[in-house]
């Protein structure tokens, strides 16, 4: 069973994304990286995570190849920001995903990606 299925599919992933971005916009390290209207970012994140966790290729079908590292290069991504991003996701998952081992599997998968985006010391 994929992480997508274990998480409850696209509807549940979108609920996690909503909680996640509530945390992001309140975080002093992360909030400055995002536009005032975060809705399009949330939609893309939901599409990407659906695909990333083994669901339908929603992101690719709309936006093409993710090229996520290239898309994040214009932003200063530090280890502190990657840690903050993961902390925001951890809190969202704790609210929506009762299974602790599933939460850890999701965070482990996302950790590789978050730290891969680091492009600035600090």
From TrEMBL:
<dbReference type="InterPro" id="IPR009050">
    <property type="entry name" value="Globin-like_sf"/>
</dbReference>
<dbReference type="InterPro" id="IPR044203">
    <property type="entry name" value="GlbO/GLB3-like"/>
</dbReference>
<dbReference type="InterPro" id="IPR001486">
    <property type="entry name" value="Hemoglobin_trunc"/>
</dbReference>
<dbReference type="InterPro" id="IPR012292">
    <property type="entry name" value="Globin/Proto"/>
</dbReference>
<keyword id="KW-0408">Iron</keyword>
<protein>
    <submittedName>
        <fullName>Globin</fullName>
    </submittedName>
</protein>
<keyword id="KW-0479">Metal-binding</keyword>
<keyword id="KW-0349">Heme</keyword>
<keyword id="KW-0813">Transport</keyword>
<dbReference type="Pfam" id="PF01152">
    <property type="entry name" value="Bac_globin"/>
</dbReference>
<comment type="similarity">
    <text>Belongs to the truncated hemoglobin family. Group II subfamily.</text>
</comment>
